Amino acid sequence: MPFLSLGLDDRIFKAVQEAGYTEPTPIQAAAIPEILAGHDLIGIAQTGTGKTAAFTLPMLDLLARGAVGRAAGGAGAGQARTRTLVLAPTRELVAQIHENVAAYARHLPLRVATVFGGVSERPQMQALRTGVDLVIATPGRLMDLMGQRCADFSALEFLVLDEADRMLDMGFLPSIRKIVKALPQKRQTLLFSATLSKEIESLTHEFQRHPKTVQIGRRSNPAETVTQIAYEVPKHLKPALLVHLLQDPQMNMVLVFSRTKHGADKITRKLDQVGITSATLHSNRSQNQRLRALKAFKDGEVRVLVATDIAARGIDVDGISHVVNYDFPMHSEDYVHRIGRTGRAQAIGDAISFISSEDYGPLKSLEKFIGRGITRKKAEGFDYNAASTEPREHGQPRPSHQRAKPPVPRDPPARGGQRRGGGWRGGRR
Ligand code: AMP
C-alpha cells in the first residue's frame, strides 16, 4: 500500500517522502485510516514498528486540516489554541516524538511545545502561555504547569497516551487522571501500549469511547531480524567479557544495559580504562548530559552507550549494531523493549545477554514469554578461568592468577555497515 492512498495532507505526504519512507509500516497502514476516520484507537505495538508516525501523521493531518481551534475557538488572531496533546513516560521519548513531529510537520506552520522535568520551567511556561498547536509532555511536569494555570486545553481535540503501560509502571496514573479531567470530553483519544493488560484495558474504558483496536506483532515477539544469544558468565567476569566481545569491530554501535545507575557508571569507567569510547544515560544525569550522551552516540563519537531501562525508553537511534544485556532484565517485557533498540525498522542487529547463576530463573521465564529458547554460547577465545580485573563482590569465587587478554587497539570501525535501510520490508508479525 503506498502512502499516497492514505489521503494525508499533501504537505505531510511530501515530508514523509523526504524522510525516505516508501510505504507505511503495518501499524501505520492499519491505524492511520481509523484515526483519520475520527475513531478512538488502542494501538498494541512495541517500539520499532513505526508507531510514532502511526499517531503523528494523522495528528498533524488534523492540525493541517484547517484552523478549527483557531477560528472557532475565539482566541486572538495568531494565538494558537492547543488542539493536540501527546503524553509520554520519559523526557527521551518526548524528545523523540518531537523529532518525528519536526520532520513530518516541516512544511506546516505549526507551533509545538515540549514539556518535561529536569530543565527550567520558564521557557516551557512561556511557550504554553503564548499558545501552541501541539504539546508533547511527560505527565509530571505538565501537571505542575497546569497547576500554575499556564496551559489552556479548552480547545483540545486530540489526545495521545504513548507507552501507556510504561506510564502506569512509573506511577503516572494519578497525574494522567488529573490531566485528562481538565480536557474537553469530546475529543479523540489514542492509546499506545506494548501490552494489553487488565490495567491498560481499564484505562481505555476510562478515557476512550468505542475504541478500535489495532495490534501489530505480539509484545512477546521481538523483532525477527534480531539474533539472540546468551553467554553464561560468572558475575565477576562480566567486565572482562564485555571488553573481550568489543574486540569485534562488527560491534560498532553498541547499547549496553545495566540494572543500576551505579553499575552503568562502573561499566563506562571500565571501558574508559581500556580505551573504548562510551557514554552513559541514566536518570541521575542532567537532561543536558543525557542529550549530549545520546548525540555523541548517534554521531559516532562514542562506540558504546551504557543505559538503564528507564533512561533508554524512547531511544531511537538508527544503526545500533548490538544490544548487550550486561545485567539480565528482571522482567521479560524489559528484555523485549531493550532488544527492540536493535533490528529497528528491519535493520539487522544482535542481542547478547550475560547470564549469571541468579539469572537462570528470569531467563527461563523469558523463554516462555517469547515462546522460544535463546541459544547459549561460550564466547570464542575468552578465557573463562581468567581473573577479573574488578574487585570481587561478596560471595563471588576467588579469582585465579590468569588475566583476560587486553583488547587489541584498532582503528574505529566504520559505522552503520549492517543497516539495510530503505523502505519498510517487514511483514505483519
Ligand atoms: P518507532 O516504532 O516509532 O520508534 O519507529 C521505529 C523506526 O522506524 C524509526 O527510526 C522511524 O524513523 C522508522 N520508520 C517509521 N515509519 C517508517 C516507514 N514507513 N518506513 C521506514 N521506516 C519507518
Overall description:
The chain is α/β, with parallel strands linked by helices and 429 residues long. It folds into two domains: 3-215, Rossmann fold; 226-383, Rossmann fold (3-Layer(aba) Sandwich). The protein is 36% helix and 15% strand. The chain has 16 helices and 14 strands. A seven-stranded parallel sheet has the order 3-4-2-5-6-1-7, sandwiched between helices. α7 (139-147) crosses α9 (173-181). The longest helix is centred in the N-terminal third of the chain and has 14 residues, at 51-64. Bound molecules: adenosine monophosphate (AMP).
In short:
By secondary structure, the chain is an alpha/beta fold. The chain has helices spanning 10-18, 26-36, 51-64, 68-73, 91-104, 122-130, 139-147, 164-169, 173-181, 198-207, 238-245, 261-273, 287-298, 309-312, 332-339, 360-370, and strands at residues 41-44, 84-87, 112-115, 134-137, 158-161, 188-193, 212-215, 226-232, 254-257, 278-281, 304-307, 322-325, 349-355, 375-377.
Reconstruct the topology from this structure:
Elements: H1 10-18, H2 26-36, E1 41-44, H3 51-64, H4 68-73, E2 84-87, H5 91-104, E3 112-115, H6 122-130, E4 134-137, H7 139-147, E5 158-161, H8 164-169, H9 173-181, E6 188-193, H10 198-207, E7 212-215, E8 226-232, H11 238-245, E9 254-257, H12 261-273, E10 278-281, H13 287-298, E11 304-307, H14 309-312, E12 322-325, H15 332-339, E13 349-355, H16 360-370, E14 375-377
Parallel strand pairs: 1-6, 1-7, 2-4, 2-5, 3-4, 5-6, 8-13, 8-14, 9-11, 9-12, 10-11, 12-13
Helix pairs in contact: 2-3, 3-5, 7-9
